[in-house]
Design goal:
6 helices, about 140 residues, four-stranded antiparallel beta sheet, Muramoyl-pentapeptide Carboxypeptidase, domain 2, globular
């Protein structure tokens, strides 16, 4: 379904292009921080939820595939129970951010996960972000009632 949506939106060709990480970081972590100011994290979270509404996914595997395709990193399910799922996100870019001691927010990804899981589970969901520098990993805990 995710690949079908890419084709329908003519986004498939975009997945074949490469962009230098510096350009991505410049926009996301410099420009957006300056524009959004103190509301940066909350706007990123709600933007992630909005992005999920534009790219609705029906399974956890589709979410994992989306993260990889979007360049967010490699997402995997670390744990789950009836009221929450814990995901781990890793990538070379994340490791590089930790090595540079960047103050980086993953609230865009957190909001995206919250909205996708809310749609899949049919229950209101929210995501908490935790950065594990020693493991070069971002932990997302998605909780619902």
């Amino acid at each position: 379904m995710f690949n079908k949506r890419l084709k329908e939106n003519n986004d498939l060709i975009l997945t074949q292009l490469e962009v230098p990480a510096f350009g991505y970081e410049l926009v996301r972590e410099t420009l957006l921080k300056d524009i959004l100011g103190k509301d940066y994290n909350s706007i990123l979270y709600w933007s992630g939820k909005n992005l999920a509404r534009k790219y609705p996914l029906g399974t956890i595997q589709e979410i994992i595939d989306f993260f990889e395709t979007a360049g967010f990193g490699t997402l995997k399910v670390a744990n789950e129970n009836k009221n929450e799922m814990v995901f781990e996100l890793t990538s070379d870019l994340i490791a590089n951010r930790f090595a540079r001691n960047c103050d980086y927010s993953y609230q865009l990804e957190a909001g995206f996960l919250a909205e996708q899981l809310q749609n899949i589970m049919g229950k209101e969901a929210e995501t908490l972000e935790q950065q594990k520098k020693k493991l070069n990993t971002i932990i997302f805990t998605v909780q619902w009632e």
